[in-house]
Specification:
Number of domains: 2
Helix content: 25-40%
CATH topology of the largest domain: Nitrilase/N-carbamoyl-D-aminoacid amidohydrolase
Strand order of the largest sheet: 5-4-3-2-1-14-15
Radius of gyration: 26 Å
Number of helices: 16
Structural class: alpha/beta
CATH superfamily of the largest domain: Carbon-nitrogen hydrolase
CATH architecture of the largest domain: 4-Layer Sandwich
Number of strands: 19
Distance between the termini: 61 Å
Length: 558
């Protein structure tokens, strides 16, 4: 596994090793399938001359396994998978993450295998329990941070959160490590990639050691993992960076000599993406993997002629291919000609299947059924919601009959304040835009059109409307989205009070209205489909407010 380098300038006591970072898209719970992919990557790395290949956190079972860890059958699969990886570690060393069972407890572990033997096992010391992480529910913390020798290179292993605090890297450095290999299951959120590298640079400056950081890639339920695996040298500079949202192996050659930190050579260094491209790529990955990993091949969505459904259609086509996407326009008397024209125009331009199913008969039949019960009562949002629920019923019927996953088209702004209809436009199996505010939806639509024409300009330019009554606009019921979205970010990302949000220049009455609507809409969000998480705090795993509560944020004095 030690690979002497050519060239007469090297010192005699200096060695070199080529390492591979295996950035794979794995499926939680599919241990046999994951093991097969891992073995293929081991073979590829060995053929490329690598002496070490590293995989991501809990790669064997996929991350996060959640309550699957309670199933005895998974334990049996893991034992078989570990044997397969161990036996494949001939002619190459393998660092891999997997759940390790010991004395009746699970540990989130990373192991080093070589020549058919396990040489070292590191148990994750620092277990995260915040935002989307809940590891203390499943794992016991490790207490040791030791090093191991591999062909003259002294390695330290760490697992993800271990390097977000300085203690484990410091102990590995004190133990003589020349390189720290970090296995990770680090989910994507906007700005996370440079944040990770800044953290690794800080640990490198503290220890003087290089870090080889390998992350998984792909979607898993609400989470998307962006990969962006990297090697950071002992001065904190990136030497290798894998492309985000892309499977593959990235290589780095290390020079090392006794007692000195390894010296990574510069290799492929993928550039960070601009913000809109990064978010769009995350959404595409989330849609693609949720649909395929759920066992679906095709999707259906309601195409209204509005911006949200237009962006959702573009995402679906980019993620799955136009032949797997059915867009359904479901007009009623309030649907404007522009909506009909642009919905058809977009579907035809993208090559998606397109159908028009008018809902007038359904709506009138339902209103007729309720006429006696509603006699003497004025029309209100009830009649508007009937339209939305008729559309939801049609989409679910198509889903049942044709085996298509329904994509809900709502955005974060709407879900936040309840501007959506339960069992209507909220119906679906997955909501791609669930963590994208309305202002971000517009940004992403404009970005997508820089790649190729995908979303009609008239759809982008028109004022947002649900078209559930004559002349209706979103602004009739909501503050301007530019205001609403900033208030929501202050609430969700910073946990600010009415007072502190208002101090940023917003009307206190508007802020109170928004916070009250967020509170009152909790019951709706609990019934919403999952969606791609792209910000630091989304409605889902990291938003855990009670449905029933006496707390009134709009009346809080803090």
């Amino acid at each position: 596994m030690r690979l002497p380098e050519g060239g007469g300038e090297e010192r005699r006591d200096q060695s070199a090793m080529k390492i591979a970072l295996a950035q794979l898209n794995l499926l939680v719970g599919d241990v046999p399938g994951n093991a097969a992919r891992i073995l293929d990557a081991i073979d590829e790395a060995r053929s490329a001359g690598a002496g070490l290949v590293a995989f991501s956190e809990l790669a064997l079972c996929g991350y996060p396994p959640e309550d699957l860890l309670f199933h005895a059958g998974l334990r049996e699969d893991l034992a078989a998978g570990i044997r397969r990886v161990r036996d494949a570690s001939r002619g190459i060393a393998v660092v891999i993450g997997y759940p390790h069972r010991e004395d009746g407890r699970w540990f989130n572990a990373a192991a080093l295998f070589a020549e058919g033997r396990r040489l070292h096992l590191h148990r994750k010391n620092v277990l995260p329990n915040y935002r989307v992480f809940d590891e203390r529910r499943y794992f016991a913390p490790g207490t040791e941070a030791d090093c191991v020798d591999l062909d003259g290179l002294r390695l330290g292993l760490a697992v993800c959160e271990d390097v977000w605090e300085p203690e484990v890297p410091r102990r590995l450095a004190d133990g003589g490590a020349q390189l720290i290999v970090v296995t990770n299951g680090s989910p994507y959120e906007l700005g996370k990639q440079p944040e990770r590298e800044k953290l690794l640079a800080r640990r490198a400056s503290e220890t003087g050691l290089p870090f080889a950081y390998v992350n998984q890639v792909g979607g898993q339920d609400e989470l998307v993992f962006d990969g962006a695996s990297c090697v950071i040298d002992g001065s904190g500079r990136p030497c290798v960076r894998g492309e985000a949202f892309t499977e593959g192996l990235w290589y780095c050659r290390l020079d090392f000599s006794d007692g000195e930190p390894a010296r990574p050579r510069r290799g492929d260094l993928a550039a960070f993406m601009p913000e809109d491209e990064e978010v769009y790529r995350a959404l595409v990955a989330g849609v693609r993997d949720y649909v395929r990993k759920s066992g679906f091949e095709n999707v259906v969505l309601g195409l209204s002629g509005g911006i949200d459904s237009a962006l959702t259609l573009a995402l679906a086509v980019d993620a799955l291919g136009a032949d797997r996407v059915l867009a359904v326009m479901m007009p009623y008397r309030y649907t404007q000609p522009l909506s009909l024209e642009e919905a058809e125009s977009q579907a035809r331009a993208l090559g998606a299947q397109y159908e028009v199913l008018p809902i007038s008969g359904m709506v009138e039949a339902m209103r007729g059924t309720l006429a006696d019960l509603f006699a003497g009562l004025p029309e209100d949002v009830t009649e508007e919601n009937i339209q939305s629920r008729c559309r939801g019923m049609l989409l679910m019927a198509i889903s049942n009959k044709q085996g298509r996953l329904v994509l809900a088209t709502g955005n974060k702004s709407e879900y936040a304040v309840g501007y959506a209809t339960l069992y209507g436009d909220m119906a679906g199996g997955f909501a791609p835009l669930k963590d994208c505010t309305k202002t971000r939806v517009y940004r992403l639509a404009r970005y997508r059109n820089t790649l190729s024409p995908a979303i009609p300009q008239r759809v982008i330019d028109r004022p947002p409307t649900a078209e559930l009554r004559p002349g209706q606009l979103d602004s009739d019921s909501l503050p301007p989205y530019e205001v609403l979205d900033e208030v929501l970010d202050a609430l969700m990302l910073e946990d600010l009070s009415v007072k502190h949000i208002a101090e940023r220049g917003f009307e206190p009455g508007v802020v109170r209205q928004v916070l009250d609507r967020v509170r009152l809409s909790e019951y709706k969000r609990r019934q919403a489909p999952p969606g791609v998480r792209v910000t630091r705090r989304a409605f889902g795993r990291d938003w855990r407010y009670p449905i029933v509560s006496g707390y009134r944020p709009s009346r809080a004095n803090d």
